Amino acid sequence: MSKLYFRYGAMNSGKSTHLMQVAHNYEERGMRVILLKPEIDAKGGTKLVSRLGVVREVDLVVREDDNIIDLAKRNIEENGKLDCILVDEVQFLKRHHVDELFELAVTQNIPTICYGLRTDFKMDGFEGSERLLLVAHSVEEMKTICKCGNKALLNGRKINGKFVFEGEQVAIDDNDEIEYESLCGECYFKFKNTK
Predict the structure, then answer these.
(1) Does 166 fall in a domain?
(2) 14 lies in the same domain as 50
(3) Residue-wise pLDDT tens digits, 45-88
């Protein structure tokens, strides 16, 4: 039986880069992988884009009402045996998507490795991440550091250069410059309490 893996980390912990390295390792050995990402993740369009500049086309963009089991089975019928499923920005998937990934890993014997954030900029969980924390066979933290040098656990949202701690979980705004920064707990509360 294959497993469902959840590899999470704050912003800048190298999740997308690591995913593309795993894909390369499988393919270098003559194995076939598919890369998935949620439709809501508009960054890069149909591509995965690492902060290191590595770019790769995804195989499937998952919509909210998609059934990942059906998508994977169709892909197998069209392209042959599948050796691994890799998912980027998994936090944006729905609970049913995570359950479908779990079922694929177990019943179809396909290792499934998911990468994403555990919490948002308000320290709230994402639906996909919360479900993975409950059902994944393996949960691994990918570490990064805050600009103060401490281990970063959290994600800060900046709008036009200023930290914000209220708002929608997913920010889609064409008028403002929205960016994220990995923060340790101490810096997170320092910025939150001095706004």
Answers:
(1) yes
(2) yes
(3) 788 888 888 889 999 999 999 999 999 999 999 999 999 999 99
Give pLDDT tens digits for 118-150: 999 999 999 999 999 999 999 999 999 999 999
Distance CA 47, CA 57 (A): 4
Residues labelled catalytic: 89
Q: Per the domain annotation, does 87 fall within a domain?
A: yes
CA-based nearest residue to 76, from 107, 45, 48:
107
Residues of the domain holding 174: 154-193
What CATH number should be reported for the domain holding residue 8?
3.40.50.300
Distance CA(49)–CA(17), nearest Å, equals: 8
Q: Which secondary structure element, helix H or strand E, spans residue 15, and what is its range? A: helix 15-28
Are 30 and 77 in a shared domain?
A: yes
Burial 130-164 (b: 16+ CB within 10 A, else e): ebbeeebeebeeeebebeeeeebbbbbbbeeeebb
